[in-house]
Amino acid sequence: MDSIYFTAYNKCDIKxxxxxxxxxxxxxxxxxxxxxxxxxxxxxxEENICNKVTRTLIKGSLEVYPIHNYGAIEIGYHxxxxxxxxxxxxxxxxxxxxxxxxxENWTITKVISLH
Length: 115
Fold this sequence. Notes:
Residues 3-108 form the DUF4440 domain. By secondary structure, the protein is of the alpha+beta class. It has helices spanning 2-10, 14-20, 38-48, and strands at 21-29, 33-35, 53-57, 63-67, 71-82, 93-102, 105-113.
């Protein structure tokens, strides 16, 4: 699911991202604060990320832990490259994602993004 989500993120596929974010999303960003409005979050991604920022997972960093009767917790490191800041150094940052499985569908309910 990480690969599916971030392929959509990197390709600006807002429709797929919208299908993956849970209606009750809580997105914690150490610099941007807490976002709980799914439509606003998607709008922000479209305006600030699309065709500007690319995410790369740090190979070997991904950990996934099943959560009984809920879904899974994903923890890892990734890098972001901002095309508008080509000389900026991209350093690995930690992320934690809570995935909820309902009727064979996986959605993101919580994100903690630390830079």
